[in-house]
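Task: encode each sequence below as C-alpha cells.

Item 1
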Amino acid sequence: MVYYSFDKKILSRDPIELKGRIRDVSYWKLLRLFLTDFLQLFNIFFVQYKLFHLDIENEIGYIATLVISLLSGVVTLIFSIRIDKINHKNPATVMSIVILSLLALKYIIDSWFAPPRILCCGWYGKIVTELITSIFVLFQVPNCFRQIVVTICAVRCKFSKNEEDRIKFYHEMVNAEADAGLLGILECYLRGAPQLIVQIALVFFRHDDFTQISWLEQVSIAAALGVVLPWTATSYHNSLRTQKNDNFPFPTAVVFFMWNACLLAARILSISVVLAFWPVYTSVTVLVHWLVATLLLYYNFPPVDFYKKDKIWHFMFCSIFGIVYIFNSINMTKGKKFWHYICFYGIVFLENTVSLIMWCTNEYAKTVIYRISFVIVSEILFIGGILIMILYYVKFHPRNEKDRSSENAQSGESIPLKIFNINNCENNESVDIPSV
C-alpha cells in the first residue's frame, strides 16, 4: 500500500527511493499543474468573497464556517512549517515570501471586490475585519505556494538540458508534490468536508428549499461534493504513486476518483441529514467516532521523526488524522489493509444507514416517496463506491501491473524498457523514457 512517509530524518531527508530512476514530465502533466495553480489562486479569491463580501444568510452557519476555516488553517500552517524544517528550508524565508504574497493578494482582492463586510461594531470594526481577512489569506497562501513550487520544478525538469539538473529537479518535484498533496488532503477533510456538511445541513433544515440559497452556493455545493473532494484525494494518491515510482495511468485515476466520489458523497449526505435536526446526537456520535479512530491510530501508528517522537505531539498528530477518518480512510503505514477496510467501511455503512433511517422516520421530512428515494440514492452511492473500490484492487491496482510484468519476464517475453537509469546515461546508452 502506498502511504506518505512521515518517518524521515531531519538531517538527511530523502523520502523517495528511486534508485537513480526518473520519468519524463509530459506536457499533459504540466497542463494539469498549471490548472491546479490557477484553481488554488481562484480558491483564495472565492473563500474571501464568500466569507467576507457576501451577505450573511445564516448566522450559525457563518460562525461555524469561520471556526472550521480558522482551525483547519492553523493545522495546515503548522504542518507546512514542519515540512519546511525537514526539507532544510528556513521557515523565516518561506514565510517572508508568503507574507509578500499575502499583501499582494489582499490588495488585489480589495481592489476587485467591494470593501469587506465589517464584522464588529465600533471604531475598531474595520481593524478587526482587515486582520481576520488577512489571517484567512495567510492560511491559504502556503498551499498555493507549494503547488507553484511543484510547477516550477516540473518546468525546469522538462526543459533542462543537463541530465544531473534534470534528475535533481525531478526529485524535487515529486517530493514537493507529495508534500503539497498531504497539505491538500488535510485541508480537504479538515475544512472542505465539514463546511460542506454545514451547508447541506442548512438546506435540509429549511425543508429542502434550495430557493433560499444563492445560485453561487448551489454551484459550490455541487462542485465540492462531486469534484473537489474526490479530486483532492485522487491527486494525493497520484503524487504518492509518482513518488514511489509506480504507474497511475488515466483509467486508474478515473476509477480511483469514482470510488472516492461515491463514498464521500454518501458519507457527507448521511451526516448532513441528521445534523440538520439532531445536532447534539450527531455531534456526540461523530466525537465518539473521532475518539476511537484517534486511539487506534495512537496505538497502531508508531511515533515518527516528523514531530520528534514526542508523546503529546504523537497524540495530537493522531487526533488530526482521526478527523480525516471520520470521512475516509487513508494509508498511514505499510501493510495489507483488507481487514482495515472491512472494519472501517462496515462501521461507516452502519452509521450511514442509522442516520438515513432516523431522518426518514422523522416528522420533518417530506413525502414518503422523497424519503425513500433519498435513502436509496445514498445507499446506492455507498454500495457503488465499495464495488468500484473492489474493481480498482482487482483490475487497476499498480501491483497487478507488476505481477503481469514479472509473469512476462518468467515466460521469456520481451518487456519494453520503462525506466531511465543514470548509469545508462553515463554509458551513453539511449533508452525510452515514459511520460508521467
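Item 2
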Amino acid sequence: MANLKSALQRKRPKAGKTTTVTGVGGGGGGGEYNNASHILSPVNGSFLIVCWRLEKDSMQQGASRCIYPGDMDMDEQQQKQLVVARCRDLGRRMCVESKKLWVIVGPAIFTRTVTYSLNVITQAFAGHLGELELASVSFACTVLAGFNYGLLLGMASALETLCGQAYGASRFHMMGVYMQRSWIVLFVCAMLLLPIYFFAEDIFLLTGQSREASKMAGKISIWFIPLHFSFAFLFPLQRFLQCQMKNFVNAVAAGVALCVHVFINWLFVTRLKFGLVAVALALSFSWWVISLMLFAYVAFGGCPETWHGFSVEAFAGLWEFVKLSAASGVMLCLENWYYRILILLTGNLKNSAVAVDALSICMNINGLEMMIPLAFFAGTGVRVANELGAGNGKGARFAAIVSSTTSVMVGLFFCILITVLHDKIALIFTTSRAVLDAVDKLSILLSFTILLNSIQPVLSGVAVGSGWQSKVAYINIACYYVIGLPMGILLERLLNLGVRGIWAGMIGGTAVQTLILAVITIRCNWEKQAMIASERMDRLSQDPRQ
C-alpha cells in the first residue's frame, strides 16, 4: 500500500516532464533500472489502483521494472533513451552471468587439458621403449581405460544435477550426502567392470589386434586397475567442488599432478629403466595424487558448509540416485563411443594406413579443442542447476543463452582457423605428403565437427542441469546409432567416399541431435522446471535437520 499512497500523493506532471522510476532487481542477473525514464500521464484514482496492482505483481514475479501506460506516450527521443538503458542493463547482466560462467569454465579447461595430457605423456614415454610397448599402452589407455572413463564420468555427472540444484536451493548439507551416494554407486560399478582388465588380452584379440600387442596389452592392463578405481573416487569430488564454484581447486590439483607425472616418468622409466610397468603405475599414481589432494581439501575444512563428514544418510534414497546416474552414464557414453566407432570403421577400409593416420591427426586436433566445449558443458550444467535449485527459471534460461552464445563464438573462431589453415594443420604431426593431403581433404569435416561441438555439449549441459538425462539418452540412441552411423556406412559403401563418407554421415547424426536438443531447450517451460527441481530435492533429501 505504500506504493499506492505515494502514487496518490504525486502531483500531476507538467507537459514534457519526465519522472524517473527505479525498478526492482529481477532474476537471472537482473538489477535496478536506474536509467529508465517513464512519462506518467494524468491518471485517476482507479487507474492508480491498477498501476499499483501491476507493480505488485511485477515485484512478486521478479520483474525488472514497473510498466505504466505512460510508456506509450513517449516521444522518439525518450524511447531511444529507454532502449539504450535497457541495452546497458542487458549488457551488465550478461557480464555478471559471464563472470559466474567463466569461474567454472576457465579452470575446467585447464583441468581437462592437463588430464588429457597425462595420457599423452604416458604414451610418449612408452613410445621411447619401443613400438610394441607404445601399441600396448595405447590399447590399454584408449580402449579399456577410455571405455571405463566415459561410463564412470557420465554416471558422476548426476552430481551436476543434484549438487548444482542443492547449492542453488541452499541445501548445503545434502551436497556432501549426494557425493557419498555417488561414491557408493561408482565403486560398485567399478567392481562390476573389473573383469575387463583380467580378460584384456582376449578382448584385444577379438578386435583384430596382433597377438604380440594383445598379449603385452593384457599384461600391462592389470597395472591400470588403480587408475580404474581412482576414477570412481575422483569424479564425484570434482563435481562436488565444481557445483560450489570451487573449480580452481581442481585446476591446482591437476597442475601439481602434471608436474609429478613428468618427474616420476623421467625417474622410473628413463633414469632407472623400470620399463612398461613403471609407465602404467606412474599414470595411476598421478591420478591418485589429484584424488587425494581434493579429498584433503574437502575433509580438512575447505568446504565447511557442504561437508560434515561421512553419514548414514548416504545409504538412503540410493535407488533414485542409481537411476539418475545410470541415465547420465548412458547419455554421455553414447556420445563418447560415437566417434571412437569412426576410427574402428576406418581401420577396416581398404588401404586404410593413410586414412587412419589422417583421421588420427584430425581426432587429436578435435580432442584438444574439445576440452573447451566440455568445459562449457560443465559450466552450463552447474549454472542452470544453481538457478533451477534457487527456483529461478528465468535465471536458468538466461544462463543457458549466455553460455550457448559464448561457446558458439569460441567454436566459430576455431572453425574459421581450421578452414584458413586447412593445408597446414597437419604439419605439427607429420611431414608425409600423402597424409598431409588426406588431412587437407578432411579439414572441412573437421571444421564442421568443431562448430557443432561448440553447440551440442552446451545443450547437453542444459539437459544435465535440468535433469533430462534419460530423455537425452533416447535422443542419442536414435540420432547417433539409427541415423548417423547407418548414414555414414551408406555414404562409404554406395558413393565410395571412404572415411569422408563415414564421417559426413556421423556429422549428420550429430546435427540432428543438436537440432532436437535446441528445440527442446527453446520450448522449455523454465518455471515448471524450477518446480520439478524443487520436488526432486524434496524427494531425494533425507535430511532430518530440515
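Check on item 2: The mean pLDDT is 82. The two ends are 34 Å apart (CA to CA).
End of task.
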